[in-house]
């Protein structure tokens, strides 16, 4: 009995679903944090910054993929870890963009200090998103590399 065989069944599915729910929650948090700035810029008739749009689009993709992975049959799709790796790279880019802007930013007595502090906090949510997708990519990669492959028609023979 190997590692994968020990963790099959409903317990594994619920653990997987819970982890994807955490990813979903983190991505929705980013949608809210960056969406506030996009909404206020739109209401002020200012041009929308492409960096914020990129962050919201990345979060939207992560939301859609996390929702798709909540479906029980998503574990049977080959190479799911590749999609997780792509989303991880997108999150690292978001972290790099906003980390470069806000990590060193001073929160002083200026009128926009609340926005600056909120964005400093959102950078760490971006990093948490990136790490969560990296862990899921590694986990799904290990799962697909070590699983027992069954024959196509009967499923009885291990290939």
Question: Would you kindly provide a brief summary of this structure?
Answer:
The protein has helices at residues 3-6, 10-43, 50-69, 80-102, 113-146.
Overall mean pLDDT stands at 84
**What is the helical fraction, as a range of percent?**
over 70%
Q: How many domains comprise the coordinates?
A: 1
The string of secondary-structure elements, in order, is HHHHH
Low-confidence stretches: none
Q: Structural class, from secondary structure content? A: mainly alpha
Principal-axis shape equals elongated
Query: Roughly how many Å is the radius of gyration?
Result: 20 Å
Strand fraction equals under 5%
C-alpha termini separation: 16 Å
Count of DSSP strands: 0
Question: Biggest sheet, open or closed, and with what strands and sense?
Answer: none
- So how many helices? 5
Organism: Blumeria hordei (Barley powdery mildew)
Transmembrane segments: 12-36, 52-72, 79-103, 123-146
Protein name: MARVEL domain-containing protein
Keywords: Membrane, Transmembrane, Transmembrane helix
Secondary-structure map:
Blueprint: H1 3-6, H2 10-43, H3 50-69, H4 80-102, H5 113-146
Helix pairs in contact: 2-3, 2-5, 3-4, 4-5
Question: Your description of this structure?
Answer:
The structure is a single chain. It is built from five helices and no strands. Helix content is 72%, strand content 0%. The two termini are 16 Å apart. It has one domain. The protein has 159 residues and is an all-alpha fold. Helix 4 runs antiparallel to helix 5. Keywords: Membrane, Transmembrane, Transmembrane helix. This is MARVEL domain-containing protein.
């Amino acid at each position: 009995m190997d590692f994968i065989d020990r963790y099959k069944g409903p317990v594994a599915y619920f653990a997987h679903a819970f982890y994807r729910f955490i990813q979903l929650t983190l991505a929705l948090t980013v949608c809210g944090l960056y969406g506030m700035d996009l909404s206020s810029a739109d209401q002020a008739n200012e041009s929308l910054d492409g960096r914020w749009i990129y962050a919201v689009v990345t979060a939207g993709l992560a939301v859609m993929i996390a929702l798709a992975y909540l479906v029980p049959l998503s574990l049977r799709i080959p190479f799911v870890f590749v999609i997780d790796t792509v989303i991880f790279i997108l999150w690292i880019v978001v972290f790099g963009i906003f980390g470069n802007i806000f990590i060193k930013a001073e929160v002083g007595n200026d009128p926009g200090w609340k926005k600056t502090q909120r964005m400093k906090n959102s950078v760490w949510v971006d990093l948490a998103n990136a790490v969560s997708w990296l862990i899921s990519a590694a986990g799904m990669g290990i799962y697909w590399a070590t699983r027992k492959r069954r024959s196509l028609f009967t499923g009885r023979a291990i290939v």
